[in-house]
């Protein structure tokens, strides 16, 4: 499983993704990383919607596609403000942000 928030906010490198074997990834959490605060200070609640931060999500998705990933993408948001949104409106927002990345 790959979580793009942890991948980009943490010490991971693209070279490590390149080492994945085709079909090895079974699930992807797709979130973005804000430009602030500094990566080392980020917390779970700091996740932002896909495409609204600084993580190179298209590059990550392109690499996963080359590695034959064809499974689900889930968006895991931990910010209490986001979690308190109307579920329908939240779903629309998530869909819109993800579709922009996939188009």
In terms of topology, how is this protein built?
Elements: E1 2-3, H1 4-9, H2 14-18, E2 28-29, H3 57-66, E3 73-74, H4 80-83, H5 87-102
Parallel strand pairs: 1-2, 2-3
What does this structure look like?
With 103 residues, the protein is mostly helical. The protein has a single domain, classed as TIM Barrel, CATH 3.20.20.150. The chain is 40% helix and 6% strand. It has helices spanning 4-9, 14-18, 57-66, 80-83, 87-102, and strands at residues 2-3, 28-29, 73-74. It has a three-stranded parallel sheet. Strand 2, helix 3 and strand 3 (73-74) form a beta-alpha-beta unit. The two termini are 23 Å apart. The model has no long low-confidence stretch (mean pLDDT 93).
Provide the CATH topology.
Answer: TIM Barrel
CATH architecture: Alpha-Beta Barrel
CATH class: Alpha Beta
- What's the average pLDDT? 93
- Count up the helices: 5
| H-E order | EHHEHEHH
Which structural class fits the helix and strand makeup? mainly alpha
What kind of assembly state do the chains in view correspond to?
single chain
Helix content: 25-40%
- Order of neighbouring strands in the sheet with most strands: 1-2-3
Distance between the termini: 23 Å
Q: What does the main sheet amount to?
A: 3 strands, parallel
Instruction: Please state roughly what percent of the residues sit in beta strands, choosing from under 5%, 5-15%, 15-25%, 25-35%, 35-45% or over 45%.
Output: 5-15%
Number of structural units classed as domains: 1
Q: What's the CATH superfamily, by name?
A: Divalent-metal-dependent TIM barrel enzymes
Q: Using DSSP, what is the number of strands?
A: 3
